[in-house]
Automatic annotation (TrEMBL):
<dbReference type="GO" id="GO:0016491">
    <property type="term" value="F:oxidoreductase activity"/>
</dbReference>
<dbReference type="InterPro" id="IPR016169">
    <property type="entry name" value="FAD-bd_PCMH_sub2"/>
</dbReference>
<dbReference type="InterPro" id="IPR016166">
    <property type="entry name" value="FAD-bd_PCMH"/>
</dbReference>
<dbReference type="GO" id="GO:0071949">
    <property type="term" value="F:FAD binding"/>
</dbReference>
<dbReference type="InterPro" id="IPR002346">
    <property type="entry name" value="Mopterin_DH_FAD-bd"/>
</dbReference>
<protein>
    <submittedName>
        <fullName>FAD-binding molybdopterin dehydrogenase</fullName>
    </submittedName>
</protein>
<dbReference type="Pfam" id="PF00941">
    <property type="entry name" value="FAD_binding_5"/>
</dbReference>
<dbReference type="InterPro" id="IPR051312">
    <property type="entry name" value="Diverse_Substr_Oxidored"/>
</dbReference>
<dbReference type="InterPro" id="IPR036318">
    <property type="entry name" value="FAD-bd_PCMH-like_sf"/>
</dbReference>
<feature type="domain" description="FAD-binding PCMH-type">
    <location>
        <begin position="1"/>
        <end position="182"/>
    </location>
</feature>
Length: 286
């Protein structure tokens, strides 16, 4: 869509040049920005000019973690993690990235421009990169014009439909992922009312090694991410009680599903995720 009201696009080369002036908005990939009228905007600030690294390893005592730049595209993340599929220790994380990317209601062309940070900052319940980041226990780094910064778990950054904890003057710099998340085992289930429609429920199960700790993240079905944590793989009754304990007001309502239906199918998907994680443990022990 043409944004006819725009008067210009700035391309900053330094962070000092990137802060917004009245009537401006940050441009990352633009896949959402250009999909709907923006009559209030008079200018864009193209963050691609900052040259942030897309994906980079971070050394740590327990192995390398990962940073993901906010302007990294979905396609760029897929390319960076594709080699993991051949590594037994990180193959499950590679599969998780692919499954979350495929949960997007988009073509491969959109994946070439849609960015990780942009998708998360939209605060959409069905934001596929929010699902990914929450499952990875990723932390978001937010920068302020006065030089300050703060780090917020992505699970807490998205606070509701179209709402985040990011302040208007803050810029999302990127995500940090610990090494443990990259070697964990994942199981993913998604559900939509139509074969290629927007996700109505996304449940990701994660089992860490060697601790055996388990977490289930629920997105799309709820108005903000919900994470259920367990010391080990829970039994079916413990899991059912945890899902039932999600507050009624958290279940999301829109044309893609009613709250009571979403609550029900989330329980079904959670059981399937747990069964897959249990099967993986049995297979590893055999």
């Amino acid at each position: 869509m043409d944004l006819a009201e725009l008067r210009g696009v700035r391309v900053p080369r330094t962070l000092d040049e990137a802060w917004l002036q009245p009537g401006e908005a940050w441009l990352a990939g633009g896949s959402w920005l250009y999909s709907t009228p923006q009559p209030h905007l008079r200018g864009l600030v193209d963050l691609a000019g900052l040259g942030w690294s897309a994906v980079a390893p971070v050394p740590a005592a327990d192995g390398p973690g990962l940073t993901i730049g906010a302007t990294c595209t979905v396609a760029g993340l897929l390319a960076a993690t594709a080699p993991w599929a051949a590594e037994p220790g990180r193959a499950s994380a590679a599969s998780l990235v692919r499954r979350c990317a495929d949960a997007f209601l988009m073509s491969f062309k959109v994946q070439e421009v849609a960015t990780i940070g942009g998708n998360i900052c939209l605060g959409l319940p069905a934001g596929a990169m929010t699902s990914l980041a929450v499952a990875l226990d990723a932390r978001a780094t937010l920068l302020a014009a006065d030089g300050g910064s703060r780090v917020v778990p992505v699970a807490d950054l998205v606070t509701g439909p179209g709402r985040t904890d990011r302040r208007p003057e803050e810029l999302l710099r990127g995500l940090e992922v610990d090494a443990a998340a990259l070697t964990a085992t994942y199981a993913v289930r998604t559900l939509s009312l139509t074969p290629v429609g927007r996700s109505a429920a996304v449940v990701v199960g994660r089992r860490d090694a060697p601790s055996g700790a388990c977490a289930l993240s629920v997105t799309a079905a709820t108005d903000r991410p919900v994470v259920l944590r367990f010391a080990g793989l829970p039994g079916s009754e413990e899991l059912a009680a945890a899902v039932a304990g999600i507050a009624d007001e958290r279940w999301y309502a829109d044309p893609h599903g009613a709250p009571d239906w979403r609550a029900h199918v989330t329980g079904v998907l959670a059981r399937e995720v747990l069964d897959e994680l249990h099967a993986g443990v049995r297979e590893a022990a055999a």
